[in-house]
Amino acid sequence: MKHLILVGACYVDTVLSVPHFPEEDLKLRATSIRVRRGGNCPNTMEVLQQLLRAEHLPHSQTEPLTMHLVSPLPERQSQATAQIIASFLPAPDTAAAAAAAASAAGITFDHCLFRQGHQAPASSYIFRSEANGSRTIVNHNDLPDMTTDEFLNVVEAFRDKGGRTWWHFEGRVPETTLSCILALRRALGDDAVTVSVEVERPGRAGLRELAAEADVVFYSKSWAEACGYTSADDCLRKESLSLPRTSLAMVTWGAEGAWCISPKDRQLVKSPVERPVKQVVDSVGAGDTFVAGMLYGLICQADTWDVTHKLGFAVALATLKVQREGFGGLGDDIRRADGGPSVRR
User: Residue 135 pLDDT more than 70?
Assistant: First the structure.
């Protein structure tokens, strides 16, 4: 059994589509509203869940992959937690039934941090402008963040699992995340873990220190531009000089596609967007979709696809995502785009 542990926040997103961004102290009618589960790691899990279904894509691995979410959530019996767990499947009658069904589908929530006395989830309110496609996000979260000690309790649960485990970190609260990564390596050993991190939020101090401790690094265009980079290759060539243990670093660059580099051999690979985007419908979660595509390639097709194939697959997947609301049907459509047969859902 292979294990992918994803560490990050889980949000409930309220997406308001508006004709244009509202001016202060004025009233504006939204054209639509959607409420959905969000957060970087949960979004990535949702896409991976589709890719891991055998009917969608061929697998090179003989071992199944189980995904584990590590995230602060409201108390276990709360309605919000039941809705979050059920969001990964057609909703069963109870939270327990939803969790059991999700586990059967390759996702477990046993290592989430259920906060007693809290009923409300972390929430995001997203204003999406139909005029220019911009997204303005207002967050609220009063759930206590994960501590290093709590994370170490999770790590202990994997000590006797055997084999190599993959740990993916969103990159929230960099000081705590760095402490967790160092503690993880001490507890299980470098030979037993692979660590990937997201360097996404502009202005968030400590992200470079996280990247330096990771095996795989995902940079965002917004972070790179905030650091003064005007091109993807310039970002990777310079940032990779400070990545002593990293085997692969990559950055997405919007409509231009994505780049990756192996810091050890300085090999730079580019994957452009091959199929033009007809219309950007919903870019929320596009980066999370790219991460899902790369993790799928790196974990499930490690010995089958070369890095160019993996990067191209992730770019194609993210390109499909921005042309739809949410993530539904991505697994089916990426196979169809790749020339495979249609898949029953």
Answer: yes
